[in-house]
Design brief:
By secondary structure, the chain is mostly beta strands. The chain has 7 helices and 36 strands. The strands form 10 sheets. A 6-stranded mixed sheet has the order 2-10-9-5-6-7. The protein has a 5-stranded mixed sheet with strand order 12-20-19-15-16, with no helix packed on it. Strands 21-29-26-23-24 form a 5-stranded mixed sheet, with no helix packed on it. Helix 3 (72-80) packs across helix 6 (161-168).
């Protein structure tokens, strides 16, 4: 449940002489006793290959109380703590030196402010220890940190348990003697639809997860299961040591699968192959036959979470919409959600006409701040992108996408499109029509054909399958006697070719 909706909250900043520890820095060790009298040491937890999720809050902080009541940490602990699969440990720290233990319990003896008990219903350790907050240079509440067994700390947004677990799984965890893994992998693009040819240079950190030194590794890059690059790495990495790897540019065009994998470790096999492979599937980007496209957006119950950008192939923002407080990097930010410039109404239909400056490659980037997309638990939202000459059949759609959805597409010249769509030689007459619409086209007899008709609302009202004639010449007749007057769109799929024509019914 999206409990933040009753709050208009942001992060609460505290005075500090130094900045928050940057992501990837080494976590400082600490030993502290929780409210139940049990003593914990951070490095001991990490040495047991536990991932530590550390929340630093203050009892008086409204966003902290809201996040506590979301139950995200308790749910994470139940699933992956000692009573779950035992992959991690959750720790909660009250980081304000001016509060006392009574504030954590929500008791009258609190020397500050507390809206209630932070202890009730919680089974993970809780500490009243501002020294821990100081050691991590905490500058705002709440701060959520993931500390990996290699002692590196990464800040994440205060998100739900699923997103927290997804982030925690990015931690390298040692296992076995001969073990190397691929981490922080970047295929070279955030798009999975390729317009033209994309020169990708995958990069990642090669991490030693074995208890012996990593001296060599063989890394392969494959396209469609064919090896296109082999990199022989040599070095000397202790356990949790890492080396940056960047592969050579590889031209990717059309549909296919790109795979980066470690095929040998120290001239032998790997004790754990689960972290050796990264796979990305690419498809051919859809193309538009106009320099204008129509973007239709149906918002869900939480439209303030939505933001989008149209970019060219150089990454320049050509157009944008939605809540600017979310912005392009606003995924999974739960408690910094206030309606800003551009915020859409809830459960509304928005239509924008976007102009593309020239033929070329473009991308559409959608952000959902909560990280649950636009559909389907909190309203049936979506976005659809149309050719302006056919505002009925979308060429691109999105709805269930998590925090981000990045889609590529191309705009080609009208002349080029006419050369491809006129292969069938489709003739449609009379237009306008009253009782009947005649269709004629030429294509090989073996090619499958399906026809559909859409009204101006984008609703499919009629589907037909023309009979084969035994020759290259084909025809069909549509009876229009019971059709209301107005404009319609004919979509004829002839093999792999899609032909769209507009016609009008008159009485």
């Amino acid at each position: 449940m999206k409990k933040y909706a009753v709050f208009a909250l942001g992060l609460v900043f505290v005075s500090a002489l130094s900045a928050q520890l940057p992501s990837g820095a080494q976590a400082p060790d600490f030993t502290a006793t929780d409210l139940n009298g049990q003593t914990w040491n951070l490095y001991d937890l990490l040495a047991s290959d536990k991932i530590v999720v550390l929340e630093v809050s203050a009892t008086w902080c409204p966003p902290c109380w809201a996040y506590h009541n979301s139950g995200a940490m308790q749910d994470l602990y139940a699933a992956h703590g000692p009573q779950g699969d035992n992959r991690l440990q959750v720790l909660f720290v009250e980081g304000d030196p001016n509060t006392n233990v009574d504030c954590l319990h929500g008791l009258p003896g609190c020397n500050g402010y507390s809206p209630g008990s932070y202890v009730q219903g919680v089974t993970y350790p809780i500490f009243d220890n501002s020294a821990i907050a100081d050691s991590f240079q905490i500058t705002y509440f709440p701060s959520v940190l993931i500390i990996c067994p290699n002692k590196k700390v990464y800040e994440v947004n205060p998100v739900g348990p699923e997103a927290l677990w997804e982030a925690a799984q990015q931690c390298p965890v040692a296992a076995g003697s001969n073990n190397a893994g691929i981490f922080q992998y970047d295929p070279g693009t955030s798009l999975h639809e390729i317009c033209g040819t994309a020169n990708l240079a995958p990069s990642f950190n090669l991490v030693n997860l074995g208890d012996i030194h990593l001296l060599s590794a063989t890394i392969e890059l494959q396209w469609e299961n064919s090896t296109v690059q082999i990199l022989e790495w040599y070095g000397n990495l202790p356990q949790y040591g890492e080396a940056p790897i960047t592969l050579d540019n590889w031209p990717v065009s059309g549909s296919g699968t790109l795979k980066a994998q470690i095929t040998s470790v120290n001239n032998g096999g790997d004790d754990d192959y689960s972290n050796n492979v990264k796979i990305n599937h690419f498809s051919l980007a859809p193309e538009f036959n106009s320099q204008q496209v129509i973007l239709k957006i149906r918002t869900d119950n939480y439209a303030l979470e939505t933001y989008w950008e149209l970019r060219d192939d150089a990454g320049n923002v050509l157009d944008h919409g939605g809540n600017e407080n979310v912005g392009p990097n606003g995924g999974n930010v739960i408690f910094d959600l206030t309606p800003g410039v551009g915020t859409y109404p809830n459960n509304a239909l928005i239509k924008d006409t976007l102009t593309l400056p020239a033929a070329g490659c473009y991308s559409l980037h959608f952000v959902d701040a909560y990280g649950d997309g636009m559909c389907c638990n909190f309203g049936n939202g979506y976005y659809k992108l149309y050719n302006i000459d056919n505002p009925v059949i979308p060429i691109m759609t999105g709805d269930e996408f998590g925090a981000y959805d990045n889609r590529g597409f191309g705009s080609q010249s009208v002349t080029a499109v006419q050369e491809t769509t006129d292969k069938s030689g489709l003739e449609m007459y009379p237009n306008p029509a009253s009782d009947q619409l005649f269709l004629q086209w030429d294509m090989p007899e073996s090619v499958p054909v399906q026809g559909s008709v859409y009204n101006v609302m984008g609703q499919s009202i009629f589907t037909f399958y023309p009979e084969k004639t035994g020759s290259e010449h084909h025809s069909a007749i549509l009876s229009l006697q019971n059709w209301p007057p107005g404009m319609y769109w004919l979509h004829l799929q002839i093999g792999k070719e899609n032909v769209v024509r507009k016609f009008t019914v008159q009485r």
